[in-house]
Automatic annotation (TrEMBL):
Protein name: 6-phosphogluconate dehydrogenase, decarboxylating
E.C. numbers: 1.1.1.44
Metabolic or biological pathway, per its Swiss-Prot or TrEMBL entry: Carbohydrate degradation; pentose phosphate pathway; D-ribulose 5-phosphate from D-glucose 6-phosphate (oxidative stage): step 3/3
GO biological process: D-gluconate metabolic process; pentose-phosphate shunt
SMART domains referenced in this protein's UniProt entry, alphabetically: 6PGD
6-phosphogluconate dehydrogenase C-terminal domain boundaries: 1-284
MF terms in GO: phosphogluconate dehydrogenase (decarboxylating) activity
Keywords: Gluconate utilization, NADP, Oxidoreductase, Pentose shunt
PROSITE patterns assigned: 6PGD
Length: 297
């Protein structure tokens, strides 16, 4: 299930890269050549390889087949199951969740066609250097793929803790490398990371992936910012970056969420330095204390 969830994420990331390439004026032959070149390096994987083949394929009329395919994606449910499991275990598999919702949005084809006639977007056009931006896209795709796998292993780790499973994460990565849709060259690096530290909390903290994502960060941020300015939806690329920034943040605004929950529902909160002790505040100063009753938010 987790394998297929990561597969959903990988496919969505590649789709967003394809969309961005279209937006900046890359023709399909150039796209195919770009994916072919990417498949010789860090992004070497089954999905990159078949994307190159799809981009090169021409119909019986000599025209590319891909632009003729209706842009509504189906799904069998494994991505949804992964997202549901992530919610049940309290794990932030944001990229896989966005990949599932993106397929749901694609299914609203008739609504999107009508909305495209009335909802305005930015008028800004891409004006940067295409060769440089393509390298930024490659870096963004690579960094986001690392986040996708990191999130998948976080879910496995939490499920193992809950059910007292003894999972060999390195062997799982090795298994995925042989004959699976998400097989890629860096699955070997995932195995090496878990072999070195079986208790690794996140792949993002493993030296190989930490170095890779550090090098990719500037291009990644430029791609997300450029996509926003061009009005190109990149939910997976964007949420991968948001997750990365959230994971590296010592403080998040959840203290305000806790205060709000306590204000309207007396759900209590912990104070810094007094973890494990839950307190409630009468925030209004009048009317007595509120109490949680029929709901929890």
């Amino acid at each position: 299930m987790v394998h297929n969830g990561i597969e959903y994420g990988d496919m969505q990331l590649i789709g967003e890269v394809y969309h961005l390439m279209l937006a900046i004026g890359i023709n399909q032959e150039q796209m195919a050549n770009t994916f072919e070149e990417w498949n010789k390096g860090e992004l070497d994987s089954f999905l990159i390889d078949i994307t190159k083949d799809i981009l090169k394929f021409k119909d019986s009329d000599g025209k590319y087949l891909l632009p003729k395919i209706r842009d509504t994606a189906g799904q069998k449910g494994t991505g949804k199951w992964t997202a549901i499991a992530a919610l049940n275990y309290g794990m932030p598999l944001t990229l896989i969740g966005e990949a599932v919702f993106s397929r749901c949005l694609s299914a609203l084809k008739n609504e999107r066609q009508k909305a495209s006639q009335v909802l305005p977007g930015p008028s800004k056009k891409f004006s940067g250097d295409i060769k440089t931006f393509l390298e930024d896209i490659r870096q963004a795709l690579y960094a986001s793929k690392i986040v996708s796998y990191a999130q998948g292993f976080m879910l496995l780790r939490e499920a193992a803790a809950v059910h007292n499973w003894d999972l060999d994460y390195g062997s799982i990565a090795l298994m995925w490398r042989g004959g699976c849709i998400i097989r890629s060259v860096f699955l070997g690096q995932i195995k090496a990371a878990f072999d070195k530290d079986p208790n690794l909390r996140s792949l993002l903290l493993a030296p190989f992936f930490l170095d890779a994502i550090t090098k990719a960060q500037n291009g990644w941020r430029n791609v997300v910012a450029t996509a926003i300015n061009l009005g190109i939806p990149t939910p997976a690329l964007s949420t991968a970056l948001a997750f990365y920034d959230g994971y590296r943040s010592e403080r998040l605004p959840a203290n305000l969420l806790q205060a709000q929950r306590d204000y309207f529902g007396a759900h209590t909160y912990e104070l810094l330095g007094k973890e494990g002790t839950f307190v409630h505040t009468n925030w209004t100063g009048h009317g007595g204390n509120v109490s949680a009753s029929t709901y929890d938010a």
